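User: hey, got a sec? need RNA pyrophosphohydrolase folded
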Amino acid sequence: MTPETLQNLPYRPNVGALIFRADGKVLIARRTDMPGVGGPLTEGVWQCPQGGIDGTETPHDAVLREAREEIGTDKLHITGEYPEWIAYDLPPNLIGKALGGKFRGQTQKWFTLAFTGTDADINLNQQTPPEFDAFQWVELATLPALNVGFKKPVYEKLVDYFMHNR
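Assistant: Yep! Here you go:
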């Protein structure tokens, strides 16, 4: 593909979940397809659950499905949403490879969800292979400082908004 062709690829519709525990901490999980898997919790690339919107599925339905698939629990309910869609481009070395090679990046609708269970209700082995190998609960304000890779600008927007609108 030429650089012009790559830049003309569409964005994949996607949802993201900021999952909050009763104490206000948010769930973040370590990706299994990046370096650092299986190591100390200070290693690896971390993200909040997210995923594509299937067919005619609504974003509300998609975020609950994605959370169920990725962290193995349905002890969640939607409490809010970011007012706009947030688009990001993949890094140049991933365009044409990641996301099936069909997209230049993603446009995401983000939601806040309340988690009503305990850590024992989270099962990262629902998918084969699992997307995540570990999770932790962190302060919302710390998300952009963690290793969230090229998605850091997305997390900065989310933190800025939800620190004042939750």
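Quick note: The chain has one domain: 3-162. Let me know if you need anything else on RNA pyrophosphohydrolase.
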